[in-house]
Amino acid sequence: MANQDDVANKQKAIQNRQDQLDGSMQKGDQGSSSGGDQAAQTGVQQPSGDFPAQHLAKPGLEAQMELKPKFMAEGYKGSGKLAGQVAIVTGGDSGIGRAVAILFAREGADVAILYLNEHEDAAETQRYIEAEGQQCVTVAGDVKDMEFCQQAVDQIVAKFGRLDVLVNNAAFQEHAESLLDLTEDRFDETMRTNIYGYFHMAKACLPYMKRGGAIVNTGSVTGLKGSKKLLDYSTTKGAIHAFTMSLAANLLDKGIRVNCVAPGPVWTPLNPADQSPEDIAKFGQATTFGRPAQPEELSPAYVYLASSVCSGYVTGVVLPITGSVGE
After folding, report:
1. Residues 280, 169, 129: CA angle, nearest 5 degrees
2. In angstroms, rounded to a whole number, what is the distance separating the alpha carbons of residues 257 and 204?
3. Residue 260 in 3-state DSSP?
4. Domain 84-321 has CATH 3.40.50.720
């Protein structure tokens, strides 16, 4: 079984090689808030304009982000949509996963967080879940490893006695200017984390899931439209969309629904751990909204797809939340 710190170091090495190809990436000055007037605000006011020009070491800690993502969704009131249930969220230490885990707890679920080695972020997420009045366990490891996934799921079910919802969300992303920059080793890291990890977790969870259970996968707008600098990442997200639809058809007779959320740009550690400080300052400004989403703008969609009360007649759907008209 792979050591999670070794995996994180491997991902940092991939990042460092790409940084050298891109040229020196020095941390820039924090961006101004100019440009915010052009960003669309259709609900709770969200950050806009230039974001901090920051480059994080992989896998990326939310605790180190200069501008912290918004994940609490203070206006969202729970109503017991997941009362008494148990959910697993991979990549649940930060970003979208953290926001989802907190809302699941607000809806009455106990939550297990799987993560690589971002212990500080995972502990913070656990505190927020417990503040919602629910139990939380955190398990560190590598979803590329089927043995880890099986042991983690067994451990979680042994503690809570059941399993109702799986959110596949863990991901690896590193841009590349050219196909020639993608080594076999790097392509494998992206594929095995992003699609094998989903496969491993679904396979480990399925024996414990009963009628009414749900699997929610995190896809991406890049899986719908492609992305010229995210060749391998986009490939995995397209595969996740197809995996979602295929598994939904496969599990319908068992009463288990499988759906997917396909976000556009979202302000999480994944992105400043990939893009240069110059690029990250303008992150999300190419959307129709003129800004990236915050994790709290995505998490209610996961509640909807996880809860059979809300989406009992929905399966095999890829739900785009991209910040752009018609996408």
Report:
1. 95
2. 16
3. strand
4. yes
pLDDT digits (tens, 9 = 90+) for 116-167: 988 999 999 999 999 999 999 999 999 999 999 999 999 999 999 999 999 9
- Number of CB atoms found within 10 A of residue 121's CB: 25
pLDDT of residue 268: 86
Residue 233 catalytic?
yes
- Name the residue ranges covered by the structural domains of the chain: 84-321
How far from chain centre, in Å, is Cα 322? 14
Q: Is the bond preceding 69 in cis, omega lying within 30 degrees of 0?
A: no
Which position among 233, 302, 304, 313 bears the catalytic label? 233
CB neighbours of 83 closer than 8 A, spacing ≥ 6? Answer: 107, 108, 109
Q: Which two tokens stand for residue 162?
A: 């059941």
Residue 27, pLDDT above cutoff 50: no
Six-digit token string for 226: 């492609």
Taking a C-beta distance cutoff of 8 angstroms, is the pair 78, 310 a contact?
no
